[in-house]
Structures are given as C-alpha cells and as structure tokens.
Amino acid sequence: MSYRLLASMALALGAVPLAAPALAQAPALPAMLQGLPAGRYTIDPAQTFARFRVRYLGINHVDGTVPGASGTITIDPANLSDLALDVVMPATGIATQDGTFDDELKGPGLFDVAHYPTIRFAGHRLTPTGPNTARIEGEVTMHGVTRPLLLDATFTLASGTAGLSVNASGTLHRSEFGMTKYAPFVNDDVKITIAAVLNRSG
Questions:
Q1: Distance of alpha carbon 32 from alpha carbon 197, whole angstroms
Q2: Superfamily grouping for domain 52-200
Q3: Strand 70-75 and strand 133-142: pairing?
Q4: What digits encode the pLDDT tens for the residues 51-107?
Q5: Closest of 142, 178, 175 to residue 54, by C-alpha
C-alpha cells in the first residue's frame, strides 16, 4: 500500500466524527416521588404486613404472614441517600395455615418469641433503580441478631400525595440469625415481602 493511499485514508477518517462513548447516568429521582412532600410518614398497621416463604424437602413451600407492623419513614425526595426508616413487626403474630407449625415457629430454635418478640428493619439509604422502583439498604434484627438486608421496592403515591404505598422484597438466610432448626430439610433462604401504607404525620 502506497504512502499516498495511506495519507488519503487518514484524511478521510479524520473527516468523519467518531461517536463519543456512552456515559452511564445515575438513575433519576423515581417519578412517583417527585410530588412527595418531604417529612415523616407513619405506617398504617391495618394496611401493612409482611409475608415470608421458605422451601422444605425441596418440593414444597411454607408461606406465612406477620401482620401488625408499626413504624415511620422520614424521607426527602431531594436527598434520598439520607433516609430514616424504622419498621417493627411482632414475631408473636407470625401465622401460617398450620397452627401446630405456628407454635414451632414461635418456639426455641426458630423465632423464640418468648425472648425475641419483635422483628425490626432499619433502612438508611434509598437508591433509585427505575421510574417507580428503588433499592433500600438497611439492617434487620431478628432472634437477637442484626444483619444487612437489601430490599427492592416499588412505590405508589396515594391520592393528593397524603400517603405512600411501598411494596418491598428481599431474601435473608435464617442460619445467619441462629435459626437452624430443621436444616437441611428446610431451606436456609427465606424470601420476604413487605406491603406497607404510610400516611404523612401531622
């Protein structure tokens, strides 16, 4: 290939602008939070509950609920990284479709509600992941042990922005909380879902 041809190719390439590499953008503020007044919101216990699901014997699942949650969230849509979320659920209210198994769940080796009557989740950071979704970082305290927990959440504003609906889900490992009874016949992974309605305080 001649020098003249190489020079011509170089000039031709130089005349064509190269596309700039795409830059990753931080997720925008979730659309449903743009109209949310900053402040403190209180959980409505009548419309808030947690569900859990755990697999046993590799063929079936146990599903249960934990009703009667209470707590608050303090949120500022302009500063989502500064979140204060505190949710307390009564372990004494745990229920499945089997009353005998409920007694087992509440006894020693599992929730041991006589010594640890509550389950608590404290969230401290919210990171948007989509138009109506975000990830909540925090810690859960259960059976006297505290461990990090990530929840993937979907938000919906109530009419007039007077309230906020949150549906969040995540997975924890019961062995990390010293709840090893029935292992390995009952899986270590426990899937949890929290549905909460919060009303603006004041």
A1: 14
A2: Lipid/polyisoprenoid-binding, YceI-like (2.40.128.110)
A3: unpaired
A4: 999 988 878 888 999 998 999 999 888 887 778 999 999 999 999 988 888 999 999
A5: 175
* The token pair that represents 158 in the structure block: 């109530």
Q: Which range (7-11, 27-31, 105-109) has the least confidence?
A: 7-11
pTM: 0.79
Q: Two tokens at 20? A: 């700039």
* Residue 173 neighbours by CB under 8 Å, 6+ apart: 188, 189, 190
Measured distance between the N- and C-terminal CA atoms of the chain, rounded to whole angstroms: 80
Give the pLDDT confidence score for residue 16 in this predicted structure: 40
Q: Give the torsion sign (CA, 176, 144, 172, 191).
A: positive
